[in-house]
Write a structure and sequence with these properties.
By secondary structure, the chain is an alpha+beta fold. The protein folds into two domains: 76 residues; 85 residues, 2-Layer Sandwich (hypothetical protein PF0899 fold), CATH 3.30.2320. The protein is built from five helices and four strands; from the N terminus they run H-H-E-H-E-E-E-H-H. The protein has a four-stranded mixed beta sheet, with helices on one face. Strand 3 and strand 4 form a beta hairpin. Helix 1 runs antiparallel to helix 4. The radius of gyration is 49 Å and the shape is rod-shaped. The mean pLDDT is 87. It comes from Soehngenia longivitae. One of its GO terms (molecular function) is proton-transporting ATPase activity, rotational mechanism. Belongs to the V-ATPase E subunit family.
Length: 209
């Protein structure tokens, strides 16, 4: 015969079993949920890691490009400095050649031709012509011989010695002063001289951009 205690014991077992099943189901669901959360978090962390890696790589690439750009700028500056030094050395050598030219027999005729051309260009005016001290006598004689009928319109003065050779011409009213000196001729053509010089050097392989 089943007693009340037995019935209570059976009831407790049934209830406990049911609760145990519910607990197990809830535990399984919780484990699944945790696993899903863990997987999602793992993916998020991997995505963050990939993003961090991308950012670091992009930053490293920028730094490398900046360093390359800086080095290119330094090299370009060095090349430009070297080109300027070469050009100025060459200009100095042209000054020396021009100075040597003034000591040749051809220089006198060169000077007369340039003076005549300037006088023809500016017309029948009163002029002051500036030449080297050593050229004053030959220029004076040339003007006397060539322009005897208007020689009184010419005044001959000494020009600065650093102009090497050639002449300056100025009107009586001092409204203009034109520089035909050898130094100015070289200086005014420095850009073209440089282009020609470096074109020749680069063609010979002696200098590169």
């Amino acid at each position: 015969m089943i007693t009340v205690e037995d019935k209570l014991d059976i009831f407790r077992k049934v209830v406990y079993k049911e609760e145990e099943n519910k607990f197990q189901i809830a535990l399984d669901e919780l484990k699944k949920e945790n696993e899903s959360l863990l997987e999602q978090k793992k993916k998020e962390l991997e995505a963050q890691r990939d993003e961090i890696i991308k950012r670091k790589l992009a930053m490293a690439e920028r730094e490398i490009n900046e360093k390359i750009s800086e080095e290119k700028t330094k090299v370009k500056e060095q090349v430009l400095k070297m080109r300027e030094e070469i050009l100025q050395d060459f200009i100095q050598s042209l000054y020396l050649k021009a100075s040597a030219f003034t000591k040749t027999s051809e220089y006198g005729q060169y000077l007369f031709d340039k003076v005549d051309k300037a006088i023809l260009e500016f017309g029948d005016m009163y002029f002051t012509i500036y030449v080297r001290e050593s050229d004053k006598e030959i220029v004076k004689k040339h003007l006397e011989d060539t322009y005897s009928n208007r020689f009184d319109k010419f005044n001959i003065e000494t020009m600065p010695s650093n102009l090497i050779g050639g002449f300056l011409i100025e009107d009586k009213e001092k409204t203009f002063l034109v520089d035909y000196s050898l130094k100015t001729l070289i200086d005014d053509n420095e850009y073209e001289i440089g282009n020609k010089l470096f074109s020749l050097l680069e063609g010979a392989g002696d200098i590169n951009e």
